[in-house]
Amino acid sequence: MIERRAFLKLAALAVPPLRTAAGAARFPAQIASRVERAFRTPGATPNGLQATKEGLWVLDQGTNRVALVRYDDGHVIRQFDTETDRGSGITFDGSALWIASTYNRLLVRVNPQTGRTLKKMPSPGSGLVKWGPRSGHPQPTGAHGLEWRSGELWVAVPPAVRIFLLNPEDGTQRRSFPAPGVRPHGIGWDPDGSLWVTESIYRSFFKMDTATGKILMQLTLPAEEPLVDGVVQVPHGMTIWNGKIWFSVAETGEVYRVPLPA
Q1: Which of 74, 156, 243, 248 lies at a CB distance of 3.0 to 4.6 Å from 46, suitable for a disulfide?
Q2: What residues have CB less than 8 Å from 5, skipping those under 6 apart?
């Protein structure tokens, strides 16, 4: 989160553009047309989201609990504890949930009815994050955003600043590409098959070509939205459902949504 005054000062100074090895990045950029507050989550620190036909899965980092909630009002359908450590991402493979157990650097597969652990494997790209003072981030951490598609597991890892494609059977890396910025978080599938990646510090969502790793578009939250008690909030967990990007704010316990660009 960012205090309103500090954020507006940064905006006035102009945050430096995202850069690549070839120089300033060139891709379309938009500001989200509107931000809608959806609901407050069952836990105080929602850090992972995953949309499914049954409802929205919410992973709370503070309690290590998972809740399945309704889209319209956040009403809890079911919830349970997990054997994870301050997780930051969640996805569904059609029969079980995967959780990015961030602080013990594991990817954990769990039963979607009870939370019972079914499998564990190491997170790729674990290490120290590349933002903030070292005193604020003294220990290695692992994966954040997770997504599943066609029998493969996609993983966003802030310490490595990369997106990894894994074989979920044994955790081996099939390939990877650089993530935008320095703090990638939640990820979600666009209807056209591209992957949206949340960058928390830029308060943006980047649409990426999964074959090349090329950034196709940047969607940024408005300068003062969402604003809670004078503090500009940053996105953490993210998923896509019904033409909208849904994102969680870990500091306020809320879920918001913005329309996907046309």
Answers
A1: 248
A2: none
pLDDT value for 23: 47
DSSP codes, 147-216? EEETTEEEEEETTTTEEEEE-TTT--EEEEEEPSSS-EEEEEE-TTS-EEEEETTTTEEEEE-TTT--EE
State the pTM of this model. Answer: 0.91
Q: What is the DSSP letter of 15?
A: P
- For residues 66 and 100, the answer to whether their CB atoms sit within 8 Å is no
- Inter-residue contact 163 to 156 (CB < 8 Å): yes
Distance of CA 83 to the CA centre of its chain: 20
Every domain of the chain and the residues it spans = 2-7+37-259
Q: Could you tell me how many helices (H) and strands (E) the chain has, helices first? A: 1, 26
User: Residue 71, by phi and psi: left (phi above 0), alpha (psi -120 to 50) or beta?
Assistant: alpha
Distance of alpha carbon 84 from its chain centroid, rounded?
17
CB-side neighbour CA atoms (13 Å) of 1: 18
User: What six digits make up the tokens of 128?
Assistant: 């120290």
Query: What's the CATH superfamily of 2-7+37-259?
Result: TolB, C-terminal domain (2.120.10.30)
- Tens digits of residue pLDDT in 198-239: 999 999 999 999 999 999 999 999 999 999 999 999 999 999
The total of other beta-carbon atoms located within 10 Å of residue 33's CB is: 11
pLDDT tens digits, residue range 158-190? 999 999 999 999 999 999 999 999 999 999 999
Closest Cα partner for 165 from 120, 113, 98, 210? 210
